[in-house]
Amino acid sequence: MSIIRLSLALFLISWSLNSEAQVRTQNVNAELDPRGLPELTVCSQNLQNYGLIPDYLSRNRGKSATVFFRKQAALAARFAAQDCDVIMAQELLGKEEGISEKALKNLADAIRVKNNRFYEPVTGPSNDPAIRLGYLVAVDRAEILNKTSYVKVELPKLIEEGKPRLFSRGPLELQLKIKGRENSNPKIITLINFHLKSKFLSQKDPTRTEWETSRMEMAEALRRIVESRHATSIQSGETLLLLAGDRNSHWDAASAEILEGRLQLSKFKGEAACRLGGRGVPLCTPGSGSPQLLFSFLLSDPETKLLQGTHQYKNVFSWLDDILAPANTLKFARASFDSEGNYDAGVVYDFPEASDHAMTWVRFNW
Q1: Phi, psi of 70 (to 5 degrees)
Q2: Residue 14: pLDDT above 80?
């Protein structure tokens, strides 16, 4: 037997043993946990300019169709390996919704080759001429109830004299009815997919903050949407509420704290209590904070928060991508029924050809 064949055989044996061990672990956990098997896995992924081949090649000069298909296969491998029921996608190419939807359909076909599951594609409008947000929803686990885009929401202003602005890519909300497993009841979950302004062409930012002030305005607008439209979910927890996407800022940036509710945009106006320091980190006087509204499944988890981040640029990792929820939703993602503050959530770095962003995920049970 050649070395190559021997290596392949050993790999397949190892993969088979790991898969069997994983299945056994899931069965044991299901027996020990009165909730049984998990109900829903939500994944979030910046696709790094994924779309139809002509759009991909136009956006990625010097790349080839071969590179594109390797990327598509790697994305499909990530989603299939994590057994994602819902995929929240950012940086999806397409000048029109129909074009982006077709690209998502192609990605869904690539995933189905690996796991034999069917996904329904959903896209929304965008203020970006080339990039938008989208979803893939596994039809065996969820029914789509409503879709809402916030593409036309006018942003609050940090400087009142500034011109009116909109989201770079309007957040896209999807309401799903999750089919219960075995004896569990169906449940409603509302997902809000977001992609805040990047640091691209930061030399053109007149505030010299790498567009952090723009992200702060977007974060304030998004949190206000959540507070006003989903007050019942926040207070009762009868329906689940989740935000996921690409913040384009680190966890300690002002925009991150504003999105979570720890700070408000008004604290940075005029002679207010806060100002921006290096990297967009807020510098505030004591007592400037507010009660936190949204909490990160990833950065609240004792194991996951020790990871290096979700994106690497010039050998520096950052937590650009996140999954957030109000307190009453957090309890449905506990790693076990009696674990407080330990969540069934994580980050996937495997299949690096998929994207320059890691994939984030959270698993729910009830």
Answers
A1: -65, -40
A2: no
